[in-house]
Design a protein that fits this description.
The complex is a heterodimer of chains A (491) and B (127). Chain A is mainly alpha-helical. Chain A has two domains: 276 residues, no CATH class; 208 residues, no CATH class. Helices cover 78% and strands 2% of the residues of chain A. Chain A has 20 helices and two strands. A two-stranded antiparallel ribbon of chain A has the order 1-2. Chain B has 127 residues and is mainly alpha-helical. Helix content of chain B is 70%, strand content 0%. The chains are: A mainly alpha (491), B mainly alpha (127). At the A-B interface, helix 5 and helix 6 of A face helix 3, helix 4 and helix 5 of B.
């Protein structure tokens, strides 16, 4: 039984999704969603523990041996990303019930959970598979359901932002297919491990270089790397709160994983960094993303949009870590993958609580909320400090490794820039804190604390921020092992 | 000779550019979807072209007389890209369906499917 865990963790949410539609009942659909997410989390945890203890697991679908059949392959890297997706899914699903009842029309709630589970399936599928075409299929499963989820937002601008995301996301996915096709032309294989063996013989052909370019642009679109991030702020701002918390914490992370998988495992680090000079593309884009997007975030009046721009900046930190092309840099990137999921998940969940009580996330509407919703705003402060990178929070751990990586390469201006942009994060977090704590509550209405059903999942993530900030041994060990796997060195 | 022997690929590039340009330049959301479809179709043709071998037939076991047999070896085109593209076509249809559904909802709430008019309505709403 346990050898089938790898496939079951994708199948369970996939099969639970139609159950949500057929149940036609909001409560039942929510029950299926939570159950499926928790089952997946259990399976992912088992798989992760096994990978950590005994090394990579492979699973042949339908017992067809690779490279002909589709292979699912879990090593230290994707076990780590699977864990991120499953944890966030399992925290957001219980949170969604109350938040979604408020923000989505009653008749559409079962469909909401169906789309949510499909998105969850797609993200897990991208991560678990060892077949490049399978990546594309799961990418579209997750993207199409994400467009639907975003369009469920209350504001009518949710529709236009979902449409823009659909256009840009489909272009990105199509670019990835072109890249996969060109690789197939040259090698006749779609299996990642097999491609890694075959590609070095054809490295110097133009076809492979073009394939690399298409894949790079496609993945950059999906992960919202700086000039290709235009779909992200509106999509995050107008989606229902639970969707924003889920997508912000997982979708871009899985796209970063795709980048790592394609460019480190399939093409190999030597090709990416010695032949294609990927670091020379990533480094400037990451730096520009971090500086400009942090600056833009400071001037936002909608707090969800502020956090969305901050997300683009934070993706810049991950890409910066990758551009160092060293084990330390990759460790920083992988750590930030997990840590950013924890902090952005918590912050967007705070916005969900605020939205639930006062129906707006405009910064002026949040005046005096520190007294009215003390637990929610305290969570915002802790998660915000984590975003800034204050010691004893996870944000500090990722920044620490990022700066170590920069100094290791001798790029001390980059290290200084990381410190300066952390201060910019402090500015935009402080703007919210100032309004919430140092201004009078303008209304007389008795606005209360958010319900426990929202507070408990949110505080679970907030406490994880602190827990893994104090005791980072597990996370650092996992990220380091994953980084070493990617660089090809023996652990 | 070399130019014409890659006839399929020239068509692929032409369609890809036409679709991409339509998607970027047109303000009408339906026209954008059409552009996206043409763009995706070009990729389908790229895949189908690359599986073809000159003189190759369908991947069926046959002897010299065209009878089916289990021992004969024939030159056949690679069927795998075709199968992959069946999947991609399904994905393309799903994308189109979601896109058109969104356009219907946009038309219902904004009363327009022209991007500049929608932007104007959004700008007025924000002000």
């Amino acid at each position: 039984m346990s050898e089938h865990y790898v496939i079951l963790l994708v199948l369970v949410p996939l099969l639970a999704s139609p159950l949500c539609i057929f149940s036609r009942n909001a409560r039942a659909a929510w029950g299926f969603a939570v159950l499926a997410c928790l089952t997946s989390l259990y399976l992912v945890f088992q798989v992760w523990a096994e990978v950590m203890a005994t090394g990579p697991i492979t699973y042949h679908i339908g017992d067809w041996a690779p490279p002909v059949g589709i292979e699912y392959r879990v090593d230290a890297v994707n076990a780590w990303v699977l864990l991120i997706v499953a944890v966030i899914g399992s925290v957001v699903a219980p949170y969604a019930r109350v938040s979604v009842e408020r923000e989505v029309e009653a008749g559409r709630i079962p469909l909401f959970y169906a789309a949510f589970l499909l998105c969850f399936t797609g993200l897990l599928g991208i991560t678990v598979t060892g077949d490049v075409f399978n990546v594309f299929v799961f990418l579209e499963v997750s993207s199409l359901s994400a467009y639907g989820l975003i369009a469920l937002g209350q504001d009518r601008r949710a529709l236009t932002s979902a449409f823009r995301y659909l256009i840009m996301g489909s272009v990105g996915a199509t670019f990835i297919v072109i890249g996969i096709g060109l690789m197939y032309v040259m090698t006749g294989s779609l299996n990642m491990a097999d491609l890694a063996q075959l590609l070095p013989q054809v490295w110097d052909t133009r076809t492979i270089k073009v394939a690399y370019g298409f894949l790079a642009v496609g993945v950059f679109l999906k992960l919202a790397l700086f000039p290709l991030h235009l779909w992200l702020p509106n999509a995050y701002t107008f989606a229902p709160s639970a969707v924003t918390a889920f997508i912000a914490a997982t979708a871009t992370k899985v796209a970063v994983y795709m980048l790592l998988r394609f460019f480190f495992t399939v093409f190999g680090a030597p090709f990416s960094f010695d032949v294609m000079r990927l670091d020379m593309v990533l480094l400037p884009l990451a730096l520009v993303a971090i500086v400009t997007m942090s600056l833009v975030a400071i001037f936002q009046v909608n707090v969800k949009r502020l956090l969305a721009y901050s997300s683009v900046a934070q993706i810049g930190y991950m890409i910066l870590g990758i551009s160092f092309a060293s084990v330390t840099g990759l460790t920083a990137a992988l750590l930030h993958l997990f840590n950013h999921a924890l902090m952005k998940g918590a912050l967007f969940m705070c916005m969900g609580c605020v939205m639930y009580r006062i129906g707006s996330v405009h910064i002026d509407a949040m005046a005096g909320l520190g007294k009215r919703m003390p637990l929610t705003m305290a969570a915002f402060v802790v998660a915000g400090l984590s975003l800034v990178g204050v010691p004893l929070t996870v944000g500090f751990i990722s920044k620490w490794y990022l700066i170590l990586g920069a100094l290791e390469r001798g790029w001390w201006p980059v290290a200084i820039l990381v410190l300066i942009t952390s201060l910019m994060a402090l500015v935009y977090v402080w703007r919210v804190v100032e309004v919430a704590y140092f201004q009078e509550f303008p209304h007389d209405e008795d606005t209360q604390e958010a319900p426990w059903a929202l507070l408990i999942p949110m505080w679970a993530l907030v406490l994880a921020n602190v827990w893994f900030g104090i005791d980072a041994r597990t996370t650092v060990a996992s990220a380091e092992q994953a980084a070493q796997t990617l660089m090809g060195g023996a652990p | 000779m070399t130019l014409l022997s890659h006839y399929n690929y020239w068509v692929v590039i032409l369609l890809m550019m036409v679709g991409f340009y339509t998607m970027i330049s047109r303000g009408n959301l339906i026209k954008k979807m059409v552009g996206l479809n043409v763009f995706q179709t070009s990729v389908f043709m790229l895949y189908i072209s690359m599986g073809k071998i000159r003189g190759g037939t369908a991947p069926i076991l046959m002897d010299a007389h065209g009878e089916s047999s289990e021992t004969a070896h024939v030159l056949y085109s690679n069927p795998l890209p075709h199968v992959l593209i069946l999947t991609a076509i399904v994905v393309g249809i799903a994308t189109t369906a979601v896109g058109l559904a969104l356009i219907v909802r946009i038309k219902e709430t904004y009363g327009s499917i022209e991007e500049d008019e929608i932007n104007q309505i959004e700008a007025e709403g924000a002000a």
